[in-house]
Specification:
36% of the residues lie in helices and 23% in strands. The protein folds into two domains: 214 residues, no CATH class; 97 residues, Beta Barrel (Thrombin, subunit H), CATH 2.40.10. The strands form three sheets. A six-stranded antiparallel β-barrel has the order 6-7-8-11-10-9. α1 links the parallel β1 and β2. α1 runs antiparallel to α4. The two termini are 39 Å apart. 27% of the residues are buried. By secondary structure, the protein is α+β, with helices and mostly antiparallel strands. The longest helix is centred in the N-terminal third of the chain and has 37 residues. It is globular, with a radius of gyration of 22 Å. Keywords: Membrane, Transferase, Transmembrane, Transmembrane helix. One of its GO terms (molecular function) is phosphotransferase activity, for other substituted phosphate groups. It comes from Desulfovibrio ferrophilus.
Length: 354
């Protein structure tokens, strides 16, 4: 059985991808950044090898399929290269995904695969790409050729990303979730690309990212332990869901009918995931379709900024509750637009790194 799922054959090299005279580095910065990335990749890879071995062994034992995934991506000056990852999707999944982003629920992922994707440990093999000079630690994330074909002519200055090497850590990846519109992600990438000339900028972003990921891992680990304790010891939140729950602090929900008639303007949002959310309500929702407005306030500096997302949903399950709220509803929801989907991921599910 092969150890690498080779998806590069799906993308024959096309002359369009080899064009472009883009180069944002100065000669000195290119040399120093290349040396810095190579040295750092070696320093990271040495202690990471045991972890990578355990991940690979688990993947192999889990479904007997390839350990690694190799796919075509576009690098500096649009040069194609083979990018490596730990395989988390079923073999041949890219044929199904096409130009779309991977959506939760598209494939039945194991908890281990989901953990690899959420923790971004599936990206560890890209240290090989850094050593080969295909990628840097910091830069816009590499693009699939079919995605480039789709968006290159519709997003202004999209080709600016090819003036630098793609990165293991993407600028837009730091500040936005995967569901963010490509136009927004391209805008964020382009804002930072001009600073790529300085090695100090890479070092600052790497240090900051390591700090944030460490805090996030600690917070998520504590949250998982708390959920486990509450569900197994105290028997709270005993219902099971396909995805991990996230509690959006201070969030509430406006419940209305599809025609806009408000039924309740301050239902309490307990938690949510990619497909369902749980609310405490004073009314009994027994209809089919409702309109939900998820609301919460985000503190930015000294100012409070209200955030909201509009969703359509159906009552999946109703549970009994004692207290001021008479009903507990599990809602199967779907954001009404891609922008609302982004708002859910960014401000309620908190999927971005920062």
């Amino acid at each position: 059985m092969a150890f690498v799922e080779d998806a590069t054959k799906l993308h024959p090299q096309h002359s369009r991808f080899r064009k472009g005279g883009y180069f944002a580095y100065t000669p000195w910065s290119f040399v120093t950044i290349t040396i810095f990335n190579a040295v750092l990749a070696i320093l990271v890879m040495i202690p990471a090898l045991p972890l990578m071995f355990l991940i690979g062994l688990t993947i192999k034992l889990k479904d007997r399929g390839p350990v690694f995934y190799k796919g075509t991506r576009l690098g500096i000056s649009k040069r194609p290269f083979a990018m490596y990852k730990f395989r988390t999707l079923p073999v041949g999944a890219q044929k199904t995904i096409g130009t779309d982003l991977f959506k939760p629920g598209t494939f039945c992922l194991s908890r281990f695969s989901k953990f690899l994707r959420d923790s971004r440990l599936d990206e560890l093999p890209q240290l090989i790409n850094i050593l080969r000079g295909d990628m840097d630690f910091i830069g816009p994330r590499p693009v699939r050729p079919e995605v480039y074909d789709e968006v290159a002519d519709t997003i202004r200055n999209y080709d600016l990303r090819f003036s630098v090497r793609p990165g293991l850590i993407g600028y837009a990846q730091l500040f936005t979730p995967h569901s963010a519109p490509k136009r927004l992600r391209a805008l964020i990438d382009n804002k930072f690309i001009t600073r790529k000339r300085k090695l100090s900028w890479d070092m600052l972003i790497i240090s900051y990212t390591a700090w944030i990921i460490g805090l996030t891992a600690l917070r998520k680990g504590t949250g998982h332990l708390t959920d486990l304790t509450r569900s197994q010891v105290f028997r709270f939140y005993s219902q099971t869901r396909a995805f991990d729950r996230v509690r959006a602090k201070g969030a509430s929900v406006i419940v209305s009918t599809k025609d806009g008639t408000v039924l309740e303007d301050n239902a309490f949002l307990v938690d949510l995931n990619e497909s369902h959310f749980k609310i405490l309500s004073t009314i009994d929702l027994n209809g089919e379709d409702y309109r939900f407005v998820l609301r919460r306030t985000i503190r930015r500096g000294r100012r409070d900024r209200p955030k909201r997302s509009i969703c359509h949903g159906k009552v999946y399950k109703t549970l009994p509750w004692k207290g001021n709220f008479k009903h507990v509803h599990i809602i199967a929801y779907e954001p009404v637009t891609p922008l609302n989907h982004y708002m859910v991921d960014q401000y309620f599910l908190k999927k971005s790194i920062v």
